[in-house]
Write a structure and sequence with these properties.
It contains 8 helices and 4 strands; from the N terminus they run H-H-H-H-H-H-H-E-E-H-E-E. With 192 residues, the chain is mainly alpha-helical. It has 2 domains: 1-61; 76-130 and 170-191. The longest helix is centred in the last third of the chain and has 13 residues, at 135-147. The protein is elongated.
Amino acid sequence: MPPSTPPLDFDHLPGREIPTKHKEAIRQLYGFGKILIEKLIVRYKLGKSTINRVLSYDKLEHSRDGRSGRPIILSDSRVDEIIEYLSESWDHRILKYSEIVEELKLPCSAAGLELRLKQRGSHRCVACQKPYLTLAQVTARLLWAITYIFWTHEWLKVLWSDEVTFLVGGRAAKARVTRKRGERTHPTCVQH
């Protein structure tokens, strides 16, 4: 980095991180300006160990070289394959996380799968209900009604019944699907 004029607005509170621009100014004053450490201590009101630590940095800011912690069990490409599998059909989309782990024989828990799917943008939500009638369906119904509008005695021979949903066992709750944002009305996400 080319040398620049050091910032003069230094108000450091003990226990707080020193801003990067001031760390770089200390390094430039010491390296390019040949200012002694004792003068930097007076100028910045910092301890000798703090100044030495700033001068010892090989980078401007602290950064971890690599990821620490547990290794990721499911790679991004594997999670993308799982998302593609879930997107194939309605039956796949309504699978619970534990059922997905069991069916695909994944080396993780249901909670681990849920976390990785959320990281890749997929989440569980209530399925969109069957959409309203399309223009073609409305037109077909209108033509049917116009065709039979003048029936009088013929309607007496027609047996009418109301549409009723019967639930024998199971749950009446709305199904939940695994999907990404923007897939709400995708054919495999709509509950019929």
